[in-house]
Design a protein that fits this description.
- This protein has one helix and five strands; from the N terminus they run βββαββ.
- The chain is of the alpha+beta class.
- It has a five-stranded mixed sheet, with helices on one face.
- A hairpin with a 5-residue loop joins β2 and β3.
Length: 75
Amino acid sequence: MLIRVKVIPRSSRTALAGETADGTLRVRVAAVREKGRANEALCEFLADHFGVPKSRVEVVSGAGSALKTVRIGGK
């Protein structure tokens, strides 16, 4: 499954922040954007949220951007 995610880094905690009008999932992460830490925190959060192993969650596009496409569960 592919989902679009808008990441809000440096939040007070990592949590789901809702959905935009176009269906993009908004996720707040406590991690900073440096050295892929926010992407790592996002993948960990989504793996836990969807009940899949972390190895099954990957950022497909937008690794350096706030708007990302994330693949969950697929190869």
